[in-house]
Backbone:
């Protein structure tokens, strides 16, 4: 019996014996964009100058960004195609009022992944994974004002250290939290990371996205000291966790792993308990052509 025949039997059994169609999705490579680092007094965690269409990322295929396109076809494992631009602000901030006090990044991400613009696999996860962590942190800080004030004082100290010896007008200003501008910074940093990088480059976009989110939260730059180490420690832990599962790729599995590691990291390092879901059950197995089923810890 072939792998495809065995897989279809598994899917049918999960659906009470009735044939169940599964949908494969093509990877879309986002348009490369560059973070403009000027920060202003009304900035969020870290402010970047927003383009007029902030929060919207074009997903036109870019063959030079690490994704094979055109002739390779489905057998290549990665298929780039043109698609509608992804409006991340709409996904993250629209019709999610019931999540306003939720601090579990996995629950937040699961809601966003129900959006029709979010494929089973695709580089949109390179923004959404980290954004779920940022939004969860935003909610937690609002519910814990005393700890939030302590962290804000620490973050201002981080910025002050980075600003020593530079002109005042170039200062990295870090005032109170502004989650929308934090998400814009994440889009600029991680939104250009190519689809398929988990295999083509050996560094999954889930780790890059969550690592970028931590760097935004901790005001980390290439010139930081302790948090520079922490940012790389976190992404290293995520990649180690991902390596405990064999392939093929799965953007859902990798997102769950990355956010679980990040939640544990923040609890140990910063006494921030996001109370992540203790038992994650994936609801997307029937939509992934490469699902590992019982070999995946979230099945």
Residues:
């Amino acid at each position: 019996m072939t792998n495809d025949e065995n897989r279809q039997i598994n899917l049918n059994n999960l659906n009470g014996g009735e044939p169940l169609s599964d949908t494969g999705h093509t990877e879309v490579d986002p348009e490369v964009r560059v973070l403009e680092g000027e920060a202003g007094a009304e900035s969020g965690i870290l402010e970047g100058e927003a383009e007029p269409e902030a929060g919207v990322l074009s997903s036109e295929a870019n063959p030079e960004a690490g994704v094979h396109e055109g002739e390779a076809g489905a057998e290549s494992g990665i298929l780039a195609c043109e698609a509608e631009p992804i409006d991340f602000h709409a996904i993250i901030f629209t019709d999610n009022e019931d999540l306003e006090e939720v601090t579990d990044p996995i629950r937040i991400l699961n809601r966003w992944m129900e959006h029709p613009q979010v494929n089973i696999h695709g580089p949109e996860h390179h923004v959404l994974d980290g954004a779920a962590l940022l939004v969860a942190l935003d909610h937690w800080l609002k519910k814990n004002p005393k700890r939030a004030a302590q962290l804000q004082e620490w973050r201002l100290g981080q910025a002050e250290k980075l600003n020593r010896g530079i002109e005042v007008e170039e200062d990295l200003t870090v005032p109170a939290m502004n989650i929308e501008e934090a998400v814009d910074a994440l889009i600029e940093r991680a939104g250009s990371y190519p689809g398929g990088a988990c295999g083509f480059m050996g560094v999954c976009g889930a780790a890059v996205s969550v690592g970028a989110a931590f760097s935004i939260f901790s005001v980390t730059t290439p010139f930081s000291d302790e948090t520079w180490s922490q940012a790389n420690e976190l992404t290293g832990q995520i990649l180690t966790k991902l390596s405990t599962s064999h392939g093929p790729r799965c953007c859902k599995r990798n997102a769950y792993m990355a956010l679980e590691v990040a939640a544990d990291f923040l609890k140990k390092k910063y006494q921030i308990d996001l109370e992540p879901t203790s038992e994650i059950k994936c609801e997307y197995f029937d939509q992934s052509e490469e699902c590992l089923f019982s070999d995946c810890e979230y099945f």
About this structure: The chain has ten helices and two strands. The first helix runs from residue 3 to 14. Residues 25-295 form one domain.
